[in-house]
């Protein structure tokens, strides 16, 4: 197990508090406009990807320049609204995805290092307990509950 330290940062609590406040404000401002979906609803929808965004935008241009081909049952105003919302939210989604990914990666790296160090400490406490050092016993008993390994049964075919 490597003890190489890949991350050594301290984020001031004021920075975290400020970021959380600003994210809550963003969520609050967008809340009246956002729509939640169930997993089943998400699965049933047509999905726009990078290629289809361009297709929809091109179609919107043709709807404006060649309205004679718009089906009578197609609501042009709603189509325009939908295209605009996609365009507006794309920047929000991209930025929030980058932030979430970077925060998750940093948390994962710091968590990995913290767990490695916890395992090192546990190993030292276990050894001290096995050697009969009395002050190690309560720590070992407490931590051993958290470091118990489950029994794994091999799957038979």
Key attributes of the depicted protein:
mainly alpha; 68% helix; elongated; 5 helices; 0% strand; 157 residues
Describe the protein's architecture and organization:
The protein is an all-alpha fold. The chain has a domain at 48-146. The protein has helices at 13-30, 39-44, 50-65, 76-130, 136-146. The chain starts with 12 loop residues before the first helix and ends in an 11-residue tail after the last helix. 1% of the residues are buried.
Helix and strand topology:
Elements: H1 13-30, H2 39-44, H3 50-65, H4 76-130, H5 136-146
Helix pairs in contact: 3-4, 4-5
Shape descriptor reads elongated
Considering DSSP H and I runs of 4 or more, what fraction of the residues is helical? 55-70%
Largest sheet: none
Q: Please report the distance between the alpha carbons of the first and last residues.
A: 34 Å
Low-confidence stretches: none
Strand percent estimate? under 5%
Question: Which structural class best describes the helix and strand composition?
Answer: mainly alpha
Radius of gyration: 27 Å
Multimeric state: single chain
Number of helices: 5
Mean pLDDT score: 92
Return the string of H and E elements: HHHHH
Could you give the count of β-strands?
Answer: 0
């Amino acid at each position: 197990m490597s003890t190489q330290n890949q991350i050594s940062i301290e984020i001031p609590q004021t920075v975290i508090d400020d970021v959380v406040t600003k994210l809550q404000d963003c969520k609050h401002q967008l809340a009246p406009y956002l729509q939640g979906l169930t997993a089943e609803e998400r699965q049933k929808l047509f999905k726009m990807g990078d290629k289809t965004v361009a297709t929809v935008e091109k179609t919107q241009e043709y709807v404006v320049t060649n309205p004679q081909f718009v089906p009578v049952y197609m609501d042009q105003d709603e189509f325009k609204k939908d295209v605009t919302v996609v365009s507006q939210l794309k920047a929000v989604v991209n930025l929030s995805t980058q932030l979430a990914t970077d925060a998750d990666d940093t948390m994962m790296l710091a968590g990995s290092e913290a767990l490695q160090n916890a395992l090192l400490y546990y190993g030292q406490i276990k050894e001290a307990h096995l050697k009969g050092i009395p002050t190690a016993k309560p720590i070992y008993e407490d931590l051993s509950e958290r470091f118990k390994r489950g029994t794994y049964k091999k799957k038979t075919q």
